[in-house]
Amino acid sequence: MKRLAALILYALSVAAQQPAADPQQEPPAALDWLPSVEYRSGQDIGLMARVHFATHTPDFDRARAFYRMLGYTEGTSGFPLTNTHAVARALGMFDVCQYELAAGEVMRLPASPFGANIDLLQFITPFNDDPPYELPNHLGMAYAALLTTDLGSDYEFLKSRGVEFLSEPYGSPGDRFVFFRDPDGVLYKLFETALPQGDPERNMHLEAMPYIGVNVSDFERSLAFYRALGYTQSNPLPESGTLEEARAYGLDKPFRIKGADIAIDRGDRHALRLVQWVEPYDDEPPYPPPINHIGINRIALVVPDLDRAVAILKEQGVPFLSEVAPCCSGTGEDTSGIVHAIDPDGVFLELVGRIARRGPQPQPPGCPPLQIKHRGHLALP
Fold it and tell me: Which residues, in sequence order, are CB contacts of 114 under 8 Å at separation 6+?
């Protein structure tokens, strides 16, 4: 399913990099090639894959260099730096006419079989410099887990580069983990599941991003919510951790949790680690809108028919941050779109899929004419 994620990124990037709209030309059909899905019921939204998670930075070049060091040596860029008012609203930016980015790139980990992509963005307008979560037990998308074939070697290399760790590695070779921060303080869990297989020609040995850690306030309620989305596979987690393990999470006493690794059973079969921290419990809510906070702020999930998925979820009472926005060329003519569903704790889940064409919409009253900027030039629709 690596090819599926790559095709999704390619199609969206082709749409996003289109120049000013030409009314005589058909706009790109970004997701028309997606394979069909056999829906299992009238409530099945057809969830297929994780495209990426998004994280935001105040310094794109510094952050990008850091991720290149980790092994994210491929990427897709060229997306518009500004976009339509509908896209801004889809990100919860209700009080701006248009957002503006300094830079952005969807970074890829070569040869990864999982949805390891990271959408790295630096916003100019609106900008939020609040720091990310301090510890991995905070409510929300707290961290991403990176699988390595040689944790010891990667740990020593990153330490030599001044990377901050929450502790020394916990566990024994072949079954251990450690948390580190990126230059902005965003948390990652580095872990291995087999005896080390180092390569002296490589500084880092990352292979995949098997899951993203999502912390919730009520495990049973959230499990039911995510099961309705398509996360029907569940593998329970141990319910307690020793003081030694707790210290690896940056905690100062043993912990108790309710949790499971949950996965979809089609498409890329990606997983989330859903955890309710019973003790210690941090009741501070996840990042509020708009979706531009430093840290892991949303995951992008592909469905074959976005209009259908939204209708089903609205019938189930799932709240959305906005209406569906055609995305992401800036023309408003896209036949792919985005919208953010909101989980029971306020976590943003970006749904991406085919939509019926809406056509360009006028700017709201009081807003200047729409201007779509690309890096190095300005496209006027």
Answer: 208, 209, 210, 268, 270
Q: What residue type is 381 in one-letter code?
A: P
Which of the four pLDDT bands, split at 50, 70 and 90, describes residue 31? low
Phi, psi of 10 (to 5 degrees): -65, -45
Cα separation, 296 vs 186, in Å, equals 7
What's the first-to-final CA gap in the chain, in angstroms? 36
pLDDT of residue 29: 46
Taking Cα atoms as reference points, which of 272, 148, 295, 165 lies closest to residue 215? 272
Rounded CA-CA distance 183/59 in Å is: 9
d(CA 38, CA 246): 43
The DSSP secondary-structure symbol of 155 reads H
In this model, does residue 88 exceed pLDDT 70? yes
Q: Which pLDDT tens digit goes with each residue over 127-164?
A: 999 999 999 999 999 999 999 999 999 999 999 999 99
Q: Reply yes or no on whether the pLDDT at 278 is more than 60.
A: yes
Tokens standing for 345?
């704790």
The whole-angstrom separation of Cα 365 and Cα 38 is 43
The strand ranges marked E within 280-347 are: 295-305, 325-326, 336-342
C-alpha atoms less than 13 angstroms from C-alpha of 148 in its C-beta half-sphere: 30
Candidates 219, 210, 216; CA nearest to 271 is: 210
Given CA atoms 86, 91, 95, 99 in this order, what sign does their dihedral have? negative
* Side-chain-facing half-sphere of 158: CA atoms under 13 Å: 30
Domains of the chain listed by start with CATH number: 2-379 (3.10.180.10)
Separation of alpha carbons 108 and 117, rounded Å: 5
Please name the residue that has the structure tokens 């099961």. 227
Q: What is the DSSP string of 199-235?
A: -TT-S--EEEEEEEEEEES-HHHHHHHHHHHT--EEE
Closest to 121 measured CA to CA, from 134, 135, 107, 136: 107
